Amino acid sequence: MGPGGKGTKSGKTYEDIIETAIKSNYGENYKKQINIGESLFGGNYRADFILNENIIISAKWQQVSGTAEQKILYDVASLIKIIDESKGKFIKGYIVIGGEGFSDKAKKFLLSQNHKNYFNNGDKVIILTIDKFVALANNKEL
């Protein structure tokens, strides 16, 4: 199924789950679908959520196998760029991955934070599962 089909609807459901975790633990102290700066290639980057005015949260759902998993590293680079250029406005980014479409190798690489070995300031972006995200939100550790 192509863009705009079932995958888009599933992505919206995924965002709703993330929003519930944020709202339950941080109240209304968040915004959603906000342009926050320029991506790596110069286009507008729209954050799925901004928490506490300084934490970027990007929801990445992959229902079936495909190239979306390869685009995660582009998102990492874009978030690092935006955080670095924000002059302290943004301090951290989270990419929350979910869905059965991520290959085991990609998931292992991404969740072990191996991007930190390849990107300067890679520690400013954390990639995690929805389970880990909800646990951090529940403990107010985002």
Strand content: 25-35%
* Amino-to-carboxy terminus distance: 34 Å
Radius of gyration: 14 Å
**Strand-and-helix sequence, N→C?**
HEEEHEHEH
State the low-pLDDT regions, or none.
1-8
Question: Keywords for this structure?
Answer:
39% helix, Trna Endonuclease, Chain: A, domain 1, 142 residues
Please provide a written account of the structure.
The protein is an alpha/beta fold and 142 residues long. The protein has one domain (6-138): Trna Endonuclease, Chain: A, domain 1 (3-Layer(aba) Sandwich), CATH 3.40.1350. The protein has helices spanning 6-26, 68-85, 104-111, 130-138, and strands spanning 30-38, 44-51, 55-61, 92-98, 125-129. Strand 1 and strand 2 (44-51) form a beta hairpin. Residues 1-8 have low confidence and may be disordered.
Task: Characterize this entry briefly.
This protein is an alpha/beta fold and 142 residues long. The chain has four helices and five strands.
Architecture blueprint of SSEs:
Layout lengths: L5 H21 L3 E9 L5 E8 L3 E7 L6 H18 L6 E7 L5 H8 L13 E5 H9 L4
Parallel strand pairs: 3-4, 4-5
Antiparallel strand pairs: 1-2, 2-3
Helix pairs in contact: 1-4
